[in-house]
Amino acid sequence: MSSQDNFESRTIGAVRDDVMVVQCDVTRRTYLTCLILWTLLVATAAHRRRTTAPHADEEGDPGRLLERLDAAGEWCSSGAEGGGAAVRLPLHLFDTLVQKVDLVARVIEGTTPHDDRMLQTVIEETVQSEPHSPSGRLVWLGNGTFHQPDLFLSVRAQPERNTLLATRMHNAVLSDTLEWMTGSVPSSVGNWTSPYFQCEGRRWMVSYTKGVVSDKERLSGVLSVDVDVGEVDVNQCDRLLPSSPWQMDAFLGTHRCHNATTTCVFSPGFGWSRGSYRCECRAGFYSATGRPAFNGTLVEAAYRDKITLNSPTYDMLYICKRCQPGCDTCEDDSPCLANYNWAFRISLLTISVVCISLTLLLSFYVYRYRKLKVINVASPVFLCITLLGCVIMYCEMAAIFPVLSMSSCIATKWTRHMGFCLTYSALLLKTWRVSLTYRVKSAHKLKLTDKQLLQWLFPILLVMCIYLGTWTVSAPPRALYIRDWEGLKFKQCDYNWWDHSLAIGEFLFLLWGIRVCYNVRNAESVFNEAKHISWAVHSITVVNIIMVMIHLVLVPDAGPDVKYLFGFVRTQLSTTVTVVLIFGPKFYRVLKGEGDVWDNRARARGVTASFSLNGVGPVLEEPQDLYQENEELKEEVQKLASQIEFMKIVHMEVNNRHLKPKHGGFFSQPTNTQRSVCMRFDAAACADSPGSRVSPAAELISEKV
């Protein structure tokens, strides 16, 4: 006897054993109950003796279900008929089969088959039209009972057969996506069985059953069609693959990939097999074996050995290692971040701190010697502002010393640009005053004191603060990773249109400063401060252009230490050179003891101390008002004019033989009183010599005369 015959006989026997007395003459009122009974009988009784029903705790445990899948082959080898698993399947993929079975069931309703061949042909064509339906069967009661049905048919699909009728039936299936099918209510009352393993074909299957009701409201039979679900894949990953509908969701999340270091990638096409996935290292991790992904079957075996045998294979081979800091992806343990030479950077920072200390000490000495002519003429307030700006620019080396972050980038922008603004605004405003003084020939048209220059300096600083503050609040500079010439990454502050706009503005400011310095190139001032400021402005302009060329053209891929060195060199060539040029000559004269002595070269060329091109007015702690000074000069001129006129008269009449002396007159015979008056006027005239000036106003008048 064949296995198919055994299967059929066991099916009928199971039905007879389960239902001893069931009347087939049912009314429509009990139709649903009878249909359910037949569905259970026909769909499950055929597999009762070969299917071990899962326990309640196994139905909801995906791990237990996986174990049942692995044991399916063992059941067959042990002589059992197979096993089952209560899992959810994507049964919507077989909606066409459901439509066909329902249609066949309606066609044969009320039919009294006189020839078994007709029913068998209908079932064969139905099974043959579906690629995933290997077999089907029909239990026809007719006038019989459950004990003795009139007909039991079982057919199998023949892959080599492809009849015209089967092709037409397959192509004529109505899809739910058709316009007239939209919103329709499912009318099928059939049922699906749980998946079971068929040892004969060694495949997983499910069966769809449909009751057949005659015109006399009798249950005439049950139609059952088997479906091969072996192509439905077991997906153990965390989510379904959108591009593959042939996968079940009952085993989601049962993979054995190490979640912290790897991610599960589903591999479709392996059917009902465990381990149909691969474990790929996550971003920032690498495989110790050098392979980018691990086979899911091997991972399952290694994990099982770890649990049962405490084997270290899983931890050694299938757990990815973390990449080196800064690596987004990596293939081995190679570093991705550039190394920082901290000893070298600390040495440069130490030099910068020493420069800051010396600059602060220099500002203290400027305040201490503020009354000396060499300091007083140069405006001590602006000298201190210049030194403050230099200190801020030196602080940039501390801002870029650590590994850059957003806060350090903000500090870098503020120290660099605010220090530049303070230092060179103070210097160029003084030079601009020199330029105006040099071009103005009348003292009545010039009134620029230190207080007025400070009023010009305040708006410049306010504009810079508003720009930097807006930049910091709206789009703070971030530290981005860039690569050096060795491919290693390090952080550098990003450059955008905020930087470019400010750089263009500072460059235009320096061009204006160069123009002002060019205007005063021939001006002679006390202690030559205008010339020193011109040198400093030209120096910072050239240094900035050279450093931009180095950063962008010559060595754009330099490492972090080299870029820190470039920043140090730029700071020293701009800030330190400015301090040396502006304050070096002044304190050199102070050390020589000539800090309170006027510049002889300027005096020899006719440049007086009171009208030096470095300032306006006499050298006093508080500059005098020009109008008041002009009035004092007028008084001095009138006094000197009257004295000169009196001296002319006296010298003309004394001892003049052409004049007849009057008795008792002033110019008669000179008396002792008259001689003393003449001697006093002569002494006053001698005191007005250029070698001994008593006041700035008198000095000017003596030079004019």
Automatic annotation (TrEMBL):
Chief localisation class: other
Entries under InterPro entries matching the protein: GPCR_3_C (IPR017978), GPR158/179 (IPR043458), GPR158_179_extracellular (IPR054714)
Membrane-protein topology: Multi-pass membrane protein
Record's subcellular location: Cell projection, Neuron projection; Postsynaptic cell membrane
Domain of life: Eukaryota
CDD domains: 7tmC_GPR158-like
Positions of the G-protein coupled receptors family 3 profile domain: 344-591
Key words of the record: Cell membrane, Cell projection, Disulfide bond, G-protein coupled receptor, Glycoprotein, Membrane, Postsynaptic cell membrane, Receptor, Signal, Synapse, Transducer, Transmembrane, Transmembrane helix
An example Gene Ontology molecular-function term: G protein-coupled receptor activity
Gene Ontology CC entries for this record: neuron projection; postsynaptic membrane
Membrane-spanning parts: 342-367, 374-394, 414-432, 453-475, 495-514, 535-556, 562-583
One Pfam match: 7tm_3
Keyword rRNA-binding: no
PANTHER family: G-PROTEIN COUPLED RECEPTOR 158-RELATED, G-PROTEIN COUPLED RECEPTOR CG31760-RELATED
UniProt record similarity statement: Belongs to the G-protein coupled receptor 3 family.
Protein's name in the database: G-protein coupled receptors family 3 profile domain-containing protein
Source organism (scientific name): Oedothorax gibbosus
Species classification: Eukaryota, Metazoa, Ecdysozoa, Arthropoda, Chelicerata
